[in-house]
Amino acid sequence: MEITKKEVVICLGSSCFARGNKQLVKIVNNYLLDHNLLNEVRFHGQRCFGHCAVGPSLKLDGAIKERLDEESIVAILDDFFESL
Ligand code: FES
After folding, report:
1. How many domains are there within the chain?
2. Which contacts of 29-36 are long-range, i.e. CB under 8 A and separated by 24 or more positions?
3. Exposed, middle or buried, 4 (CB in 10 Å: 0-12/13-18/19+)?
């Protein structure tokens, strides 16, 4: 039986990247590493989500999270992975 992986997609469009996602890529990757989740999650980047005004953003199983910063991202990931 195939297990469906959770998906984390970070916006690498120029606006989000310049406004914080450059750092958030590292924070998300370290979070997945620290929580031993690298094999449970498909983490990748994507071009602009079309939500630049409320970036930086990422998607957690398709749900867009907006106005992220280095503190809020950890709480959001904690909530998302609580069920694992
Ligand atoms: S650059 Fe991220 S939503 Fe546009």
Report:
1. 1
2. 31/73, 31/74, 31/77, 32/8, 35/81
3. exposed
Q: Which domain holds residue 33?
A: 6-81
Residue 79: the pLDDT is 95
51 CB within 6 A, ligand 1: yes
Judge whether 1 lies within some domain.
no
User: 16 CA to middle of ligand 1, Å?
Assistant: 5
CATH number at 20 reads 3.40.30.10
Is this model's pTM higher than 0.85 or not? yes
